[in-house]
Amino acid sequence: RSQSVSPPELSDAERQLAGALMRVNHVGEVCAQALYTSQALGARVFSRQEALAQHLEEASREETDHLAWTAQRLRELQDHPSRLNPLWYTGAFGIGLLASAAGRATSLGFVIETERQVEAHLDSHLDRLPPQDHASRAIVDQMKADEAAHADAALASGGRELPTAIKRLMRGAARVMTSVAHRI
């Protein structure tokens, strides 16, 4: 008879921390859905670039896995998604439309910068997650690899680097979102 090995237990404090971090990651995926959807819409409406719209919709479909993984992990941790998800989605949708209105290279540059910032953010979560929380770590590791691939694909498709001021503004907005989502 084989023995099954149960996953290591998390203390209440570790479970709460992992839940808060996964809630932030879930919000990030809600925002990714909004960004990619609005940028695809903008590619069609503003510049009539069907190939770009399809590229963005494919990235959105890949992000759907991340959304499902983080939602499932929140349930496993007996935690909840952000209660402000409609606000996060609406804000990200508007930002995505603005980025797409600026043209193909800027819209793809926005994807590149977003994914690079998300990659760094996920690295920080790997540093903070409890070492024995293998399930959360596996999700974050895979998400990080996928985000890097999305940034590389946007770069290969003609994305250009955004101005430093825009990058700083994006980082500031992300800090607000992650700080609030960590708690609510």
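Second entry:
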Amino acid sequence: ALLAFALTLATTLAPALSSATPFHAQASLGTDAPLMLSLRGDVELPGRLRVMAAGGFAPTAYVNVINNVLSAGGGGQSSGGLYGIRVDSASAWRVHAGWRPFAGAGLVLMGGYGRLDLVGSASARDVITSVTGVAPPAGIPEANGVYDVTSTLHMLDAEIGWEFLLFDDHLVIQTAVGVGATMAAHTAITPRFAS
């Protein structure tokens, strides 16, 4: 499960969320720590129904957190994380639908689909050591190679949040907590060396 703390600073493109306008759109910059910094677009329809799309990337600090989690899972057996894998970059996008149940309050309920793409590498020596518990002899050329590792995770998630409207409703700060589940995943491991 994914527990995300979301902080969104939004600049509105149309009248404020709290108004009686049947249609509202906003663009925002935000973060889903520790997964991504994102650009997000929200559209609110009549009945306070919401549609949201966001895309972004993981900055270095977030990639370091991901690698620290992998290292903890690897038991410290190698310089990489679990099975010697180290994440080099990450990107994500998601689409959500939701509802703002009360016209005069900032409660927002959202849920939808997200995709997380991870790109990394693993040294053959670290993989062998992580799996067997024994470092390979130095004279084996393949043990000094590096593998490219790419993973794609397809996720369903839900969140509950609160929007705070500031500066005559032209700045929105949103906080949220959520849970997520990976529904499908694919990982490809390709050697950078001839074996």
